[in-house]
């Protein structure tokens, strides 16, 4: 009798373990906008039956993960910008993930050598230029943006924003701290107004005639074209892909990591692998207007129509290391003031 009871129990256990091997939900902490994620998470749930709970955070993800510690519900961390991924790693809030699928889908320069983060998409930081007021030969490089011929013609968001800190980090990488300082001072003296608003607000300013050139990320062009209120702004500009004098165009990534104390690691892995799959990469391209990261995945026709470029091949982790210098430099030249 007791043997029978034992075998029943163990059968039951085996069955339970088999059915619960992969959880039916996965929790995501995201710095990415919910509307950008929804098409991806919907497709994942349709394919796997695993529900995705997304907590969208405006800021403070690191503080929250630290405060929650081992009891954190977070399985997967989604963010943009290499510096934020590095911040997660610096605080020991992620865990290594060994996956042939992830390693196969994500090129080496866009993932952590220790498998703690993986890029999912790339974006270039480019120049939006007035169709009417900017000639194609007025500037070619990021360095040119500091030239006096562009005085009073440039708009940008805050120099302290992660996107601009990434660009300034790259300038420090290529020209050293002092060289980057001269550049940033020159750029500041070319501004049409104090840094303010987001990337799209700069394109609106071109449309309104306040400036001729704006620094912004590529995918906002797609977002503006899709928004009836913003389409006129987009139609007033072309995209130019500046390069560094001795390198390519500045790119950054969106990426993913598995939280250190993920309560549903199998479901987390399934989601991470899905996000690098051809299906998900196509959503990044078609819906979010980003550049897919997987070799062989193509940008959407709209994005391809903006032109092609050679990305700066600097290792993104090297840029992330320069972030403190870039923050200090931007304060030193009082860029936003
Ligand atoms: Fe953005």
Structure in a nutshell:
The protein has 337 residues and is α/β, with parallel strands linked by helices. 43% of the residues lie in helices and 16% in strands.
Tell me what the structure shows.
With 337 residues, the protein is of the alpha/beta class. It folds into two domains: 4-122 and 251-300, Periplasmic binding protein-like II (D-Maltodextrin-Binding Protein, domain 2); 124-250 and 308-332, Periplasmic binding protein-like II (D-Maltodextrin-Binding Protein, domain 2, 3-Layer(aba) Sandwich). Helices cover 43% and strands 16% of the residues. It has 14 helices and ten strands. The chain has helices at 2-20, 34-48, 61-68, 82-90, 100-105, 162-189, 199-207, 219-225, 231-235, 265-275, 278-286, 301-304, 316-321, 323-332; strands at residues 25-30, 51-56, 76-80, 94-95, 118-130, 154-155, 213-217, 237-240, 251-259, 291-292. Helix 2 (34-48) links the parallel strand 1 (25-30) and strand 2. Helix 2 packs antiparallel against helix 11 (278-286) and helix 6 packs parallel to helix 14 (323-332). The N and C termini lie far apart (82 Å). Bound molecules: fe (iii) ion.
Strand content: 15-25%
- Give the low-confidence spans: 1-19
Given the C-alpha coordinates, what overall shape results? globular
Q: CATH first level of the largest domain: which class?
A: Alpha Beta
Mean pLDDT: 92
Which cofactor or ligand species appear?
fe (iii) ion
* CATH structural architecture of the largest domain: 3-Layer(aba) Sandwich
How many helices? 14
Radius of gyration: 22 Å
Helix content: 40-55%
Number of strands: 10
H/E element sequence: HEHEHEHEHEEHHEHHEEHHEHHH
CATH superfamily of the largest domain: Periplasmic binding protein-like II
Distance between the termini: 82 Å
What is the count of structural domains? 2
Structural class: alpha/beta
Main sheet characteristics:
10 strands, mixed
């Amino acid at each position: 009798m007791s043997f029978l009871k034992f075998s029943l129990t163990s059968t039951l256990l085996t069955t339970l373990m088999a059915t619960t091997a992969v959880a039916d939900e996965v929790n995501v902490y995201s710095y990415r906008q919910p509307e950008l994620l929804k098409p991806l998470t919907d497709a994942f749930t349709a394919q796997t039956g695993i529900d995705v709970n997304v907590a969208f955070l405006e800021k403070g993800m690191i503080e929250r993960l630290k405060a929650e510690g081992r009891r954190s519900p977070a399985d997967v961390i989604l963010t943009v910008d290499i510096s934020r991924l590095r911040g997660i790693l610096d605080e020991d809030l992620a865990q290594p993930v060994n996956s042939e699928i992830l390693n196969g889908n994500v090129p080496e320069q866009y993932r952590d050598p220790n498998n703690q983060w993986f890029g999912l998409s790339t974006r270039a930081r480019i120049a939006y230029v007035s169709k009417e007021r900017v000639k194609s030969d007025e500037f070619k490089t990021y360095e040119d943006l500091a030239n006096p011929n562009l005085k009073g013609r440039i708009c940008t968001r805050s120099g302290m924003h992660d996107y601009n800190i990434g660009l300034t980090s790259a300038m420090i990488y290529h020209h050293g701290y002092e060289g980057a300082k001269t550049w940033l001072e020159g750029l500041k003296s070319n501004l049409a107004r104090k840094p303010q608003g987001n990337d799209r607000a700069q394109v609106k300013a071109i449309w309104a005639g306040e400036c001729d050139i704006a620094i912004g990320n590529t995918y906002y062009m797609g977002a503006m074209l899709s928004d009836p209120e913003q389409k006129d702004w987009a139609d007033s500009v072309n995209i130019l892909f500046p390069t560094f004098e001795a390198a390519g165009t500045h790119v950054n990534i969106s990426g993913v990591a598995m939280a250190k104390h993920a309560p549903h690691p199998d479901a987390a892995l399934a989601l991470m692998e899905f996000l690098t799959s051809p299906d998900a990469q196509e959503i990044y391209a078609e819906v979010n207007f980003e550049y897919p990261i997987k070799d062989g995945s193509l940008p959407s026709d709209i994005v391809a129509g903006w032109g092609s470029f050679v990305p700066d091949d600097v290792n993104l982790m090297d840029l992330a290391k320069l972030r403190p210098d870039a923050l200090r430099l931007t304060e030193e030249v009082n860029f936003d003031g």
